[in-house]
Specification:
Layout (H helix, E strand, L loop, with lengths): L23 H30 L4 H29 L1 H21 L3 H10 L12 H10 L7 H22 L2 H9 L3 H24 L3 H4 L15 H19 L3 H12 L3 H18 L3 H8 L1 H18 L6 H15 L2 H11 L6 H29 L4 H21 L7
Helix pairs in contact: 1-6, 1-8, 1-11, 2-4, 2-5, 2-17, 3-5, 3-8, 5-17, 6-12, 6-16, 7-8, 10-17, 10-18, 12-15, 13-14, 14-15, 14-16, 14-18
């Protein structure tokens, strides 16, 4: 049931940025997402540099990134399909505990085998984006804490908080190397401390989620029928297939693989890489505030497609950049458009299913995305091991363009009043 708030005292801080109908629980989720965004942004850039510093090959780096995405897919499915029995808040608390354990595992192990295991069963997000066990559960919770017409605005704030914090995290990821050079430490030892920061953020987020209201702590009502999706099954599976195509393309260019490509092709330093992804995060985050306005004028689906196409055309052309400066400029230009579809997509999924199916729908549409994006980083690593040309970027752009055209053809007239 949508949470419509009664008129009350003037909000302060984060609450002042929320839509008027958003509940305090929505503010808690946005704050938690922002904190996790910083940690994800920090380790997504740090990860490839750290693994290379340990002596791992590009193929091994790609394998570990793939393992993180495969593990996220399995956890996302398990969490989403059990939400009607366990409750959304309980699942989020459990995810925070697992996040803390993941940070400790990456800090403790230095060889491929143990790192693959931690990557597979943990929560590490190599993209600083929306491939995470937290997001489907958070999205289902947020969707019921605001009126339907204000849902895109709340999702935009939710995404932007994570994106901007992720940009700050990406910028901060160069600090371990700077500290190592200043104090004569081993760079990999300094970078290992970054996973301690990841663990600390998990513990703070856990405390936030333990403070959610009792009504959210209780299990939500079971979906109609034997399946958590009930009558929404066909529509959700169709969307899952479409989103999988998009994510298969995205997997070629998760942040960790872009960092690797920029290093191999243009010998970009850790400090320069951190600055690039900081700027990219700022541009991508700020652009999402335009999505609610566009959605009101042209609809959710057209907002998704018409902002995505320019981003993917730029991505497909980036491998042909003659030098690093041009490549960086093109990646930054892509950032202006690449994330504007996110609040529209999240609102679209929540609008086309009834409230009792939202947790499962969010999970089922995200799991194939995680699986699809889990395969392609391994392929990207194998390709980059043979050629430093940006074939993964070209493949990503063309694949994502195909998704845009199919989405528009199939759903341009789908009603989104839910």
């Amino acid at each position: 049931m949508t949470a419509t708030t009664a008129p009350g005292p003037r909000r302060r801080g984060l609450g002042a940025l929320l839509p008027p109908s958003a509940s305090p629980a929505a503010a808690t989720v946005v704050l938690a997402r922002t904190l996790r965004g910083f940690a994800d942004g920090f380790v997504s850039v740090l990860l490839a540099q750290y693994l290379v510093g340990l002596g791992l090959s590009p193929f091994a780096v790609g394998a570990i990134v793939t393992a993180t995405l495969l593990g996220s897919a399995a956890l996302t499915l398990a969490f989403g399909l059990s939400a009607h029995r366990t409750g959304l808040a309980g699942l989020l608390v459990a995810a925070c505990g697992l996040m803390a354990a993941t940070g400790l595992g990456f800090a403790a192990f230095t060889t491929v085998g143990p790192l693959l295991v931690v990557a597979l069963v943990g929560t590490l997000n190599p993209s600083a984006g929306d491939v995470s066990v937290f997001l489907p559960t958070e999205q289902a919770l947020v969707a019921g804490e605001v009126d339907a017409e204000e849902r895109p605005r709340l999702f935009a704030l939710y995404n932007v908080g994570g994106t901007l914090a992720g940009a700050l995290g990406a910028l901060a990821s160069g600090l371990p190397q700077g500290l190592a050079h200043r104090y004569g430490w081993e760079v990999t030892d300094a970078q290992r401390l970054g996973f301690g920061l990841y663990t600390a953020v998990a513990l703070v987020t856990l405390a936030l989620y333990r403070g959610l209201p009792r009504r959210i702590r209780n299990p939500i009502a079971p979906a109609a029928g034997r399946s958590p999706l009930g009558t929404s099954r066909t529509a959700v599976l169709r969307l899952a297939a479409l989103f999988s195509l998009d994510s298969a393309g995205s997997g070629f260019v998760v942040t960790s693989m872009l960092v690797l490509w920029l290093h191999l092709r243009f010998d970009l330093s850790a400090g320069s890489t951190a600055t690039v992804f900081f700027a990219s995060g700022l541009l991508g985050g700020a652009s999402q505030f335009l999505a609610p306005r566009l959605a009101r004028r042209i609809g959710l689906v057209r907002t998704m497609v018409f902002t995505h196409i320019p981003a993917n055309l730029i991505l497909a052309l980036t491998p042909f950049a003659p030098n690093g400066r041009v490549a960086i400029a093109m990646l930054l230009a892509r950032s202006l458009f690449a994330q504007m579809d996110s609040p529209a997509r999240q609102s679209f999924v929540m609008a086309v299913v009834p409230p009792e199916h939202r947790a499962a729908a969010s999970s089922v549409t995200n799991v194939p995305r995680s699986l699809a994006s889990a395969v392609t980083p391994l392929a990207a690593g194998a390709i980059l091991a043979r050629s430093h040309f940006g074939w993964p970027l070209l493949l990503a752009g063309l694949t994502k363009l195909a998704y845009d055209l199919l989405l528009l053809a199939l759903h341009r007239d789908t009603p989104t009043d839910g």
